[in-house]
Model the fold of this input.
Amino acid sequence: MEPLLDVKNLRVQFHTLEGIVQAVNGISFVVEKGKTLGIVGESGCGKSVTVLSVMRLIPEPPGKIYSGEVLFEGKDLLKLDMAAIQDIRGQKIAMIFQDPMTSLNPVLTIGKQISEAIIVHQKVGKEEAFKQTVNLLDLVGIPQPEARYNDYPHQFSGGMRQRVMIAMSLSCNPDLLIADEPTTALDVTIQAQIVELTKKLQEKFDMSVIWITHDLGVVAEIADRVIVMYAGYIVEEADVFNIFENPVHPYTLSLLKSLPRVDSRRYERLAIIPGSPPDCIHIPTGCPFMPRCGYAIEKCGLENPQLAYVEEDHKAACWVEVKNGRVE
Amino acid sequence: MVQNSTETEIPVINKDEKPPLLLSQLVFLRFKRHKMAVAGIFILIVMIIYAIGGAFFKTEAYSLITDTSIRLNAPSSLHPFGTDAVGRDILARTIYGGQISLLIGLVAMLVEVIIGVLIGAIAGYYGGILDSILMRFTEAMLNIPQIPLLLVLGKMLGDKIAPIQLFGREFSGSVIVIIVVIGSTSWMGLARIVRANFLSLREQEFVTAARCTGTKNRSIIFEHILPNTMAPIIVSATLAVANAIISEAYVSFLGVGVMPPTATWGNMLNGAYTYIETAPWLWIFPGSFIVLTVLSINFIGDGLRDALDPRALTQSE
Done:
């Protein structure tokens, strides 16, 4: 079956005063219909830039999508004109953001913000839009939706606002929902609620989801497939079980080690990854993770490994074959 | 504790508890605390009632009757504000002149706000080359001193436009010239304010979110960003009314603004110039009307500025 979204060799750069920032360096991935793709990585590794490119929301200049194809239902989004993109945004692909405090307009009522998208895309009247908006608010678990229709964002709590954002993104029944760290600004219990809500709605609307996060716990909850990004490269890609059970790339391994575990010994310190990610202006030749990698060999400094199959349906980009934390 | 009948319902807003104040209510409360601004509103309303309501007592034709036999009469019961150099009733002329002066203030403000907001919004939202062009144009306009430009254009165009009929009154074409010239030479400050606000607001996440739902640029500019920057626009617009009235009075006083016989508070002063000591009623009445109106509008502007300041809004009390 043809995947819903097929990104091929996407390369995005930003031209700044300090130099060219190589934000995304030729990555490829697919999102299957009805499935969830988790994108994991540290801050600044190109997760958000990747999805913003899919939405064509990269500010140009300074940004530039250098090469690649973003095939959505067979059409290349990078080749469409602005009017066609505006039709796709919201209607086919919707997005929710990290900070629900800033992603709602403070001077418009939430009802207006949601119903506006419905009126624009579905070409319906105000009354019909009101009805649909109230339904959506009810669906995402806002109590008394009619009464809250005319409330302003500041009258909602963080979790409630994120629910409103989700309602807004679902307003036109999109095929793909992109969630850019939607739970990062929320506390753990609210996080769990939002994840549950998204899963429920995904089933109901038969959507695909791209879920960006740096929280591996959330990924385990929601994703079917996971890609791990580092310095603008995909370093490992596998289904969610393989990522957790059988990680191959040293970076994935270190990420997993740095997670607090319920069954860990009491006074054990959390493992950290030494150093910090390279700035994407001066990416070293060779593997970008080499300076921080405990398994590095000579070859790592000379040549950047390509993403390759290590087993069926499991790709990684590493010269060293690591299994269960041991070099083989 | 909770009564049984309401226990199963989701708690609505407690009846004893007041709903949170809307922003507009908060602004109103804060504005009320500004005593001078409230006095300004009061005086302005009195002036408007005077200029509009006065028309029910004196006809416009009466304000235009010249009778040199009663020229320069001091205030009397027949002519409460006296008569001018050609024997016209000053009371009637301040009424009809007030209408023109206030009209010029309001319409020139509208022209200014429309141009200023459009240019500022487009420059700030789109940025880049368009921003550079529009801002260089704004700076070029700022370099032209407004008063000489008003004088030159007033003189050049003052009698070129035919009178128009509006609200059952005939307005001299020079009124329109003055409105357009004042409006189109005073929008630069507002454009800069609006541009600066748009520059910062367009980077906000809610703008990206709006674009994500496929909202068109025009709707983002006017429905999403513009309401966020209403406060400085409102303040600026208020002060613009006062400035327009002053500018009109200035050029009319110099004799190139609104052409007689149409009266304005400004051109009534023009005639008074030669009789400053001998017939003070010629300038006292229109002069003090200008001062009162402009002063009260400025106080209102100050009050609005304080009331709409978002930083002040966070203070308690």
